[in-house]
Design brief:
The structure holds 2 protein chains of 2 kinds. Chain A is 74% helix and 1% strand. By secondary structure, chain A is an all-alpha fold. By secondary structure, chain B is of the alpha/beta class. Helices cover 38% and strands 24% of the residues of chain B. Classes of the chains: A mainly alpha, B alpha/beta.
């Protein structure tokens, strides 16, 4: 029983990190109609930047502040230079481009930081166990991760629902031709949304460091799962991505506990089931 | 004499060898209400698209407010103050009436920046409310657009176009599919709007046009058949023949 509760919580934490990646992918796909295959590599870059900042300052606090800003700029820069020419072209072009970018980033990090990966310490302030009354105590850092993810998700939701920029983004996801016909400077919104997606991936990278360490291929594994989350939750569905991310995190975690050999295939079996019986995803629009 | 707000010269567009629009010129003076009529397939909508930049003309030029806008992307044309209402019923079906109009009001803020002070946002909200009031949709402001009645959806469409604060408003069959009562209300609204903005409209219903237009252009098979005041159009034998017997 104790183990079950612990495993459930671990699943929620890994699911929460998945949610951050899936939301960025989903927003970018929704507004830009662009499949960003390099999303995982950008998450990895954010994690590495955080690992160096943490080594220099002794904790990840500064990284939590700086990395989103750095990644916002990186995202905006990428969109304005190499992503933009892909609009209106075949999706295969976008895939090839971002696939290439992924390997440039991975090899680039290998050249700078080596292939071995780096350890990142959780902040001292959070270096204690929280007793939950049920199950084993849980490291405070993991609760902190869930809290940060909840704040980012809530912030994104408010941004989309309450701001005038968010209004245009929501409308643009439905019909960007119409948005442009009204004279909206749609190119700026594309840059912004791409940058926000990358920044959110960067935050996920910062948070992951103290849990698993950082390594060049860390983005590849989570990216595939993030795509699964988007499909299972429903393309373009905000809460679908949140629900599916948590669900897949928990499912994988529990399968690891009871039948660990199957843990790797559970998300994909779920995706196949969803695509067969509910192609629009759990919460996707028709 | 000042230059007309819209000047189209020798507009031409062919699709696969067929002339959808063939050498059509238009001159719309500021403040006027100009109508384009013609049977189905006579090139009215294509002509609109050539003016707004949705379709590139094969030949000819378009000048708007003293500036050549031929071949300019439609997004930029819209920012110059040329708005078009669409024949499609609802623009953003899942957003509320208020949000639909607000997007257009935001787009009209020409020096738009992302992080602007709150009072500028307030001005957008105020402008949106004024437009809704004017169009008569204020009581539906929080209704999801797809739940509006057909007539109200068409009016929302008009409100969106109006919210961009255009200098020229292009209306594509604003009364299509409306009941006689709704049609009468819309005609009245269009007339009222014309007090502030120049209007160029496509219309199918002859009686609607004859009662409100200053000038009418009759298109037939992509060509300009006749242009004149409503009374002249009404009595012109070729127009009657084409219009009353359909596209034959």
């Amino acid at each position: 029983m104790d183990q079950l509760v612990s495993q459930l919580l671990l699943g929620l934490v890994s699911g929460a990190l998945l949610v951050l990646l899936a939301l960025g992918l989903n927003l970018i796909f929704g507004l830009l109609e662009f499949i960003n295959f390099s999303h995982g590599a950008l998450y990895m870059v954010g994690a590495y930047v955080a690992s160096y900042l943490a080594a220099a300052t002794g904790s990840i606090w500064l990284a939590l502040l700086v990395v989103p800003i750095v990644m916002l700029l990186v995202g905006a820069g990428l969109e304005r230079t190499i992503i933009r020419p892909m609009y209106g072209r075949d999706q295969v072009d976008a895939l090839l481009l971002t696939f290439g970018l992924t390997y440039v980033l991975i090899e680039g990090i290998r050249m700078i930081a080596g292939s071995g990966g780096r350890r990142v310490r959780a902040p001292e302030l959070l270096d204690f166990q929280v007793p939950l009354g049920i199950g084993r105590p849980i490291p405070a850092y993991l609760l902190f991760v869930v809290l940060v993810v909840a704040l980012v998700v809530g912030g994104l939701w408010l941004f989309l629902q309450r701001t005038d920029v968010g209004l245009v983004v929501r409308a643009g996801i439905r019909d960007h031709v119409m948005i442009r016909a009204l004279g909206v400077r749609f190119d700026r919104y594309r840059t912004l949304v791409f940058a926000i997606g990358v920044a959110v991936a960067g935050i996920a990278g910062v948070l992951t460091g103290p849990i698993t360490g950082v390594y060049p291929e860390m983005g590849a594994d989570i990216l595939i799962l993030a795509f699964v989350v988007v499909v299972v939750g429903g393309m373009g569905s905000f809460w679908g991505a949140v629900a599916a991310g948590l669900l897949i995190g928990v499912l994988v975690s529990l399968t690891t506990l009871y039948a660990s050999v199957y843990a790797g295939i559970v998300p994909f079996v779920l995706m196949i089931l969803v695509m067969t019986f509910r192609p629009r995803g759990l919460l996707g629009a028709t | 004499m000042s230059e007309p707000i819209l000047l189209a010269e020798g507009l031409d567009r062919s699709f696969g060898g067929i002339h959808a629009v063939n050498d059509v010129s238009l001159e719309i003076p500021e403040g006027s209400l100009h109508a384009i009529i013609g049977p189905n397939g006579s090139g009215k909508t294509t002509l609109f698209n050539l003016i707004t930049g949705h379709t590139r003309p094969s030949a000819g030029r378009v000048r708007f407010a003293g500036q050549d806008i031929t071949g300019m992307p439609y997004s930029k044309v819209a920012r110059k103050g040329l708005a078009k209402s669409y024949q499609i019923t609802t623009v953003f079906p899942l957003l509320t009436v208020f949000e639909n109009v607000r997007i257009a009001a935001q787009a009209a803020e020409h020096s738009y920046v992302f992080w602007r002070p709150a009072d500028r946002i307030k001005s957008v909200v105020r402008h949106t409310e004024q437009v809704l009031e004017r169009i008569g949709l204020a009581h539906e402001r929080d209704t999801i657009a797809s739940n509006l009645s057909h007539g109200d959806q068409r009016r929302l469409d008009l409100a969106i176009a109006l919210a961009t604060s255009p200098r020229l408003l292009l209306l594509d069959e604003p009364t299509a599919g409306m009941s006689p009562t709704e049609t009468a209300a819309t005609v009245k609204l269009v007339e009222e709007l014309n007090a502030d903005v120049t209007i160029l409209m496509i219309e199918h219903k002859m009686d609607v046009i004859l009662s409100i237009a200053d000038r009418i252009t009759v298109l037939h098979q992509g060509e300009k058949l006749f242009e004149g005041a409503p009374a002249e159009v009404k009595s012109h034998p070729r127009v009657q023949e084409v219009y009353l017997t359909g596209s034959l």
